[in-house]
Write a structure and sequence with these properties.
The chain is α/β, with parallel strands linked by helices and about 240 residues long. Helices cover about 35% and strands about 20% of the residues. The chain has one domain: Acetylglutamate kinase-like (Carbamate kinase, 3-Layer(aba) Sandwich). Helix 1 (about 25-40) links the parallel strand 1 and strand 2 (about 45-50). Helix 1 packs across helix 3 and helix 5 (about 140-150) packs parallel to helix 7 (about 200-205). The protein is globular and about 50 Å long.
């Protein structure tokens, strides 16, 4: 079975690692995600990952309560590094060589981000986990995912979420919300759909990079998305 995409960027929220917990990292959940990624790697697909930090710290929430926004955002970036290391550990336990690459230098735990080196890792069959967002406050990890996808020349962004695609409203709150099979970038922006933030969507639109939003915790979904099967919702021009 041939894959539709040769190089993918997987965007995971920090909450993806929480499982049923209210906070932190569930090692069993990290392992199950790692196994899904290993399956994709076994198809010969080059994989990069951008991970959020919302399971440990939310910069936006902290700044809303009076903390300096830039400080709060830097703390959020550090949370993504913790998640990146947890994911690296889970991936290597299932036999997938992995490198954590950070936008904020911390050489004792991860490599600094050097674009060409990151590309080389992927060419050699290693998974690259991008942590610390863009390295700048005021930018989300969604924007970091769009940016890294461009830099890595990825064919698609695969955004793993709790729901199986993009809906007219939050299906968790509004059961009568309807799902889009596909949608344009402009519609996402016009309708204010909470897929990714506007900066990330605009960046993908300007560079014609497709986004596939799919349910992460359904076994085999990541593999199906990579093979180009009809899973989730596709955002294109």
């Amino acid at each position: 079975m041939s894959a539709r995409y040769g190089r993918v960027l997987l965007k995971l929220s920090g909450e993806a690692l929480m499982g049923e917990q209210q906070f932190g990292i569930d090692p069993a959940v990290a392992t199950s995600i790692a196994k899904e990624i290993a399956e994709v790697q076994s198809l010969g697909i080059q994989t990069a990952i951008v991970i959020g930090g919302g399971n440990l710290f939310r910069g936006l929430a902290a700044s809303a309560k009076g903390m300096d926004r830039a400080t709060a955002d830097y703390m959020g970036m550090l949370a993504t590094v913790i998640n990146g290391l947890a994911l690296q550990d889970a991936l290597e336990h299932v036999g997938v060589p992995t490198r954590v690459v950070t936008a904020i230098e911390m050489r004792a735990v991860a490599e600094p981000f050097i674009r060409r080196r990151a590309v080389r890792h992927m060419e050699k069959g290693r998974v690259v986990v991008f942590a610390a967002g863009t390295g700048n406050p005021y930018f989300t990890t969604d924007t970091a995912a769009a940016l890294r996808a461009m830099e890595m020349k990825a064919d698609v962004i695969l955004k793993g979420t709790k729901v199986d695609g993009i809906y007219t409203a939050d299906p968790m709150i509004y059961p009568d919300a309807t799902k889009f099979e596909s949608i344009s970038y402009i519609k996402v922006l016009e309708q204010g759909l909470k897929v990714m933030d506007a900066t990330a969507i605009s960046l993908c639109m300007d560079n014609k990079l497709p986004i596939v939003v799919f349910k992460l915790r359904a076994a085999g979904n990541l593999r199906r998305a990579v093979l180009g099967e009809n899973v989730g919702t596709k955002v294109t021009a």
